[in-house]
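Lab notebook, bench 4. The sequencing result for the construct came back, and we need a structural model before the next group meeting so we can plan mutations. Quick request posted to the team channel:

Model the 3D structure of this chain.
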Amino acid sequence: MEHYKYIILGAGPSGLSLANKLLQKGETSFLLIEKEKTTGGLCRSEIIDGLPLDIGGGHFLDVKNKDVLDFVFSFMNKNEWNIYNRISHIIYKGKEIDYPFEANIWQMDIEDQVEFLESIATAGSNKGISKPELFEEWITWKLGKKIAKEYMLPYNKKIWSYDLNKLGTYWLYKLPNVSFKDTLLSVIKKTHVGSIPAHAQFYYPKKQGYGEVWKRMGEKLGKKLILNSPVEMVETDNLIVNGKYHAEYVINTIPWTQWVSFNDVPYKIKTNINKLEYASIQVDYYPKNINSKAHWIYDPDINKSYHRILCRHNFLENSNGYWTETNLKRSNKCSEFHFINKFAYPLNTINKPIIIKNILEWAERKNIFGLGRWGMWEHMNSDITVNNSLKFADKLSKL
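Done. Here's the predicted structure in token form:
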């Protein structure tokens, strides 16, 4: 039996950041276990058509958090990255308009502009009407009937492929307020007015895929990283992993749904775990270039299977081609190069907050901690997961 203070399950951005931060703090009694042959999780990259492709979809490094940037650049120097001003588009009536939708309706035909303005002016959120509880009603209340009907609801139906009214509204604070005044000003001035979207600026490697930085983090760990080793069993009473690694603390970044097969997880906790929902995504690569300046494009057309296009030739130097993201339930074909991500997005179902709270409280009583997208069952961008891991490393050092 090998003994460690910390055993970390999963070498995605969360597990890798935590492990490397522990190492930087002088902690050597830990082990990181990963089922795949390479590190990075959803942020892995593969060489496709002679160039890197991010097999988990589109991942980019936000510029806002200096601590995160300093940490990431310590593995992959800043001069190996390009910085971009985000260009993202939305397909509307066969035409690309800038994101966010409500701030750029001035790019549409005049008749559509008038209809959208009227819809936003009469939205429940702008008229002081109380928030509804059901997801579809909430979106309409927030954005107005026309944006809800022609963009947000069909797009959400595509990406989640799930009954929208079984999703909670507690996470929709991320949506910016749609001010009639700002929207009208944007139409008059013919420019974006209002809040700036996430990833307004982002970094992307000049010559490698986004997976390169996570690969380097894995290499830094040496023998403290075990690859090709699925987590088949965690004995929760004595914290023995796969029958041969013993820990004082276990940090879980893999999906909790994989814990259902572990023998000594209580029935009540397994019942909670079985209520967690997730979306699976298929990524398809195509070698031709799209005639667009966008880094990525959202497409709410319900008749198209995919929901987003990533234009590789616009953010990776000297590259070509694009890839699409499609919910696996909607997939009706595969390109020559395609990848299936079973665990892509945790779903924010109505009761998820209490479900994950029950799981995490039980786990912590056992010295097991959830971390990252799957450990917390929350959709986080990679910069958020890194930041949370850095803070969690500080918390662990105080245990």
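The CA atoms of residues 103 and 235 lie 52 Å apart.
Will bring this to the meeting.
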